[in-house]
Amino acid sequence: MYKGPEYAEVELPFVQQLQGMGWETIEGSVEDPAITGRDSFAQVIQEGVLREQLRRLNLRDGRPWLDDERLSQAVGALTRLPAAKLMEANQQATELLLKGISVEGLPDWDGGRGQTLHYIDWDHPEANRFTVINQYKVKCPPGHDSAKGHIIPDLVLLVNGIPLVVVECKSRTVPEGLVQAVDQLRRYANQRKAAYEVEENEGAPALFHTNQLLIATTFDDARVGTIGAGFEHFLHWKTVEPRSEAEVAVELGASPLSSQQWLIAGMLSKANLLDIIRHYTLFTISHGQTIKLVCRYQQFRAVTRAVARLKTGKTRREDGEHDRRGGIIWHTQGSGKSLTMLRRDAIEEGRAQFIRWYSERGRDWLARKVGENAGRMEVAPAGVKVQDLGYRWGSCGKGQWLYFHWKTILLPRTIAEYVVIHELAHLHEPHHTPAFWRRVERAMPDYERRKQWLAAHGMDVEGL
């Protein structure tokens, strides 16, 4: 049966590219829910697949141990979320996916302590089951079924039976096809009602409780967003990191890559999809409302490379000349500088690496400035140490040691110099007495201007 240009030119290439990346495919049915692994069209999760994967991924000494009761508890936690609104439900579901659920343990294991079950093996992508299904029919709940009574997204991407991505395709020749695709996704999730664009409830919001990405595509123009996003917040994805564009182009026999091919290769490889969900999505408050964000491709590329360089770059001692772990990330205005995020699992590791790098740079510079000013201020500090000092920029410790916050190196040079003079003066005067400020003024006559700048803008210095 001929399915039209939308299927042949957009949907089918989407599925075929996923197949080439190791995704299992299922041809959906609008008549029989069992074909898509469900008991009814009211179900949104493939519960049988999820149970099987839960049992397989959560082992005791390499062997399955979960019984039906514990499996039902884990499945029920995802299917019966105690939330009235979609965003709230999605936040709860995402938390479960990322952190798992605690169930009762066994008396002879780990002291009888509760055990955490994981829905997804984040560390080993290949251990999970990745499935793309077209024509994934879902029944609308009561009160949402005044139109057709069901929705049928073009493609739904599931991991271990859990729907994580919903894709809406439009023909390449349809006028404003992308606008229509985004509008359809928002209708499916009842987001138009939430935004007061329509009066009646619509769609099947339950399908989007576990959703992480929404994709609208016409093949030549493909964009990604999250639940709650309007059309203006659906954006392109233009990196295939950590692979190269040339490598993907050869693999697909296409040059240049289309917008859809970029997005699939860059976001929907098994490793990248789990990486983005786990490490590059967040919920935040904007104008009193919770919104969900996913990184832009520039942020993903920059942070991926930054973390790799921090982990593999040579230190100055190893290189013999330069510290190769550093670099610059350029941001234009409005490009998401404040949300260039470290991967969640690498936040502490990455933060420690950055602090170490800044501390090493800062120690050299600060020690030089201390040396330049110590003689004329008639002090002899024992040395300089750079570390996290909390809310303080500097302090004097026992034995005439000077301590500086690692963020000092991020201050404008003239302000950082004031911090140095300030701490050197403390070697004479431990408290902020008139005599202390006279010493600072003698060493730096315009200190007051610098002091005021630090008080007004110091909190704006971006940390990690």
As a whole number of angstroms, the C-alpha radius of gyration is 28 Å
Hey, roughly how much beta strand do the residues contain?
15-25%
Structural class: alpha+beta
Strand order of the largest sheet: 1-6-9-10-11-12
Q: What is the residue-averaged pLDDT?
A: 89
Count of DSSP H/I helices: 15
- How would you sum up the major sheet? 6 strands, mixed
Helix share, percent: 25-40%
Unreliable stretches covering 5 or more consecutive residues? 341-345
General form: elongated
Instruction: Kindly state the number of beta strands.
Output: 17
Question: Notable features of this structure?
Answer:
464 residues, alpha+beta, 17 strands
Can you describe what's shown?
The chain has helices at 5-20, 47-57, 68-79, 86-99, 177-188, 191-194, 245-252, 259-267, 270-279, 297-312, 316-319, 347-374, 413-426, 434-443, 447-457; strands at 24-27, 59-60, 63-64, 101-103, 115-117, 130-134, 138-139, 150-151, 155-159, 162-169, 213-217, 222-225, 281-286, 289-294, 383-387, 394-396, 401-405. The chain has 464 residues and is an alpha+beta fold. A hairpin with a 2-residue loop joins β2 and β3 (63-64). The longest helix is centred in the last third of the chain and has 28 residues, at 347-374. It is elongated.
Could you give the topology of this structure?
Blueprint: H1 5-20, E1 24-27, H2 47-57, E2 59-60, E3 63-64, H3 68-79, H4 86-99, E4 101-103, E5 115-117, E6 130-134, E7 138-139, E8 150-151, E9 155-159, E10 162-169, H5 177-188, H6 191-194, E11 213-217, E12 222-225, H7 245-252, H8 259-267, H9 270-279, E13 281-286, E14 289-294, H10 297-312, H11 316-319, H12 347-374, E15 383-387, E16 394-396, E17 401-405, H13 413-426, H14 434-443, H15 447-457
Parallel strand pairs: 1-6, 10-11, 15-17
Antiparallel strand pairs: 2-3, 4-5, 6-9, 7-8, 9-10, 11-12, 13-14, 16-17
